[in-house]
Design brief:
The protein is built from three helices and no strands. The chain is an all-alpha fold. It starts with a helix and ends with a helix. It has one domain. Helix 1 runs antiparallel to helix 2.
């Protein structure tokens, strides 16, 4: 098995796992961890760099299938990223509101303690 085919299969596995996580029901939260997302990005960069440096053999049917699967995974990922972005913005707003609430409660508790 060629190194390119190994890389493509690994990338397809990583992308497929990420797509499953990103397709998780909304009640499950974001569904993908920052570490997993970093792994996807790393995999995309590795394969992209490899494909730019090396020619893809046109006569290898296994490589052709792996490249097609990779392209389909990229298209699926592209469709899922806007929803992930929206979830992340929502979570950020929730965390900022929680922080503001905690700061207010802390200030109130401090003021209440100082008046005694």
């Amino acid at each position: 098995m060629s190194e390119l085919l190994q890389r493509l299969r690994q990338a397809n596995h990583t992308l497929s796992a990420a797509i499953v996580l990103l397709n998780a029901p909304a009640r499950a939260g974001i569904g993908i961890t920052p570490e997993q997302l970093a792994g996807v990005l790393s995999e995309l960069l590795r394969v992209g760099e490899w494909l730019q440096r090396k020619a893809v053999p046109q006569n290898d049917p296994e490589v052709a299938v792996a490249v097609q699967q990779y392209r389909q995974s990229l298209q699926q990922l592209q469709l899922l990223l806007p929803a992930l972005h929206a979830k992340l913005l929502t979570e950020r707003a929730r965390l900022e509101a929680e922080r503001s609430h905690l700061e207010s409660a802390s200030a109130w508790a401090g003021a209440s303690h100082n008046t005694r």
